[in-house]
Amino acid sequence: MSLGIYIHIPYCLQLCPYCDFTKYEWGKTLAPEHYVDLVKAEIHAHAKGLLPREVSTVYFGGGTPSLLEPHLILALLEELEKAGFQLHRNAVSHDGRPQTEISIEIDPATVDAAKLDRYLAMGINRFSVGAQSFNDRLLKIAGRKHTAQDTVELLSLLKSRGVNYSFDLLFALPSQTLEEVGEDVSRALEFGPSHLSAYCLTVPEGHKMDQNRALEDDQVEMFHLIEDRLKAAGLERYEISNFAKPGFESRHNSLYWADEPYWGIGLSSHSYLPARALSESDKALAPYGARFWNRRAMKEYEKEFSPPKAGDWSFIKQTPDDRIERLKPHQALTDFMHTSLRRTKGLEENALRLRFGDQIAGEILKRLEGLLLSGWVSKTQTGFQMTREGRLVANLLFEKFTFLEEEFAQLTRAKPAP
Ligand SMILES: C[S@@+](CC[C@H](N)C(=O)[O-])C[C@H]1O[C@@H](n2cnc3c(N)ncnc32)[C@H](O)[C@@H]1O
Ligand code: SF4
Question: What does the pLDDT read at residue 311?
Fold first, then answer.
């Protein structure tokens, strides 16, 4: 069993008005060296509470991890190794792909050739570029400090080193037209990306960036334009917002949707540990696994990990109740349904049977069969997948597979296998 690890780096050059991720403006909070010490302390506190030692992915996300000096990123990779996790840095599998996928989010104007070479030397093998748009007017509206030229320079540098990179585009920005979305996709494709994430701007109603935007139907048209243009260029959608050439799907993203264990370290990070990844004593306390999340405020995180804790800190016993959810069977089934349906490959009947038993599986499959006529789902060789129409009403579809405790009890009289 292998493990995905997410490490949050909460520093940014600017605080973008639309962004709800945990971040602080550079220079206005704890020094990065001190933050890295806290993250190291967190790694050691929990290291023995986890069963998997083999690490399949490490993802440095933010914030803007590329603001940190590379030696601090290296120190975190080394700390994971010291704590007994196997990362296989720079090792390649028999299929020529890295044994451990190590990704970092990098922003334009924060990485030069020297920094990139240091990342490559320490074993980072996947770069996610926060491009957002190639239109300077829209970048300004989004409150970004970088320009389209900065992005072009960074992408050219990545291309010249032949490394694996992806980039993020934002669409449905205020005043953005369908034509401008098309131009962004064209510019993106000029760089021949093997992976691209396209996010529809999401802001609460009444937010200043929720004005002068494409109406919902036009946003759908933007969505389809992106999907069709990327498909024509060989990038298939493998999740609602993610596209990749075959074999270049982000292994880290994919494990979020495949019931695999992931451990989120650092400020505000979320973790999911199915029972099979927990130590024996923790498993007894959470037979369906658990989700938990770290504090969002730097001061509280600092209080928690300085001074450092002993290395056998139990996730289940020692995480305060307001930051842990011990999964009940109905929540485990809801999670399984949502994550499976989000993936293009969809829900696999065998996996459903294995995890929840024949009786529950039978009931779920009946419901999916019943939805075939609506056109929201279709059959695959191994189960069911959400259709293009289904994706447009994904929330309604997910609602149909969100189970309350009583509803779960109705689905079966027998308890499903954990
Ligand atoms: C948390 S950011 C980190 C990457 C990097 N700091 C950046 O902004 O380029 C990851 C991605 O989330 C997306 N994102 C952030 N806020 C969003 C929002 N309100 N709606 C849609 N996408 C958003 C952006 O495309 C961004 O690239
Ligand atoms: S740079 Fe990225 S993480 Fe930072 S505020 Fe902007 S969107 Fe959020």
Answer: 65
